[in-house]
Specification:
2 helices, transmembrane helix, transmembrane, membrane, single chain, NADH dehydrogenase subunit 4L, mainly alpha
Length: about 55
């Protein structure tokens, strides 16, 4: 449940960053989006693996 919550929160952050209109040419914004997407995918995979075992 913890992995799933972190994944959901990170994906919400990505959606809000994209909707809010941050300039995507800014390196800091792109770094934040990349970090949030990596966090989302990593914890999504961990939640999936944990549910299988």
């Amino acid at each position: 449940m913890i992995f799933n919550t972190i994944s959901f929160s990170a994906s919400l952050c990505v959606v809000f960053l994209l909707i809010s209109g941050f300039p995507l040419k800014n390196k800091v914004c792109m770094c934040l989006l990349t970090l949030a997407m990596c966090t989302t995918l990593a914890f999504l995979a961990l939640a999936y693996m944990h549910s299988i075992c």
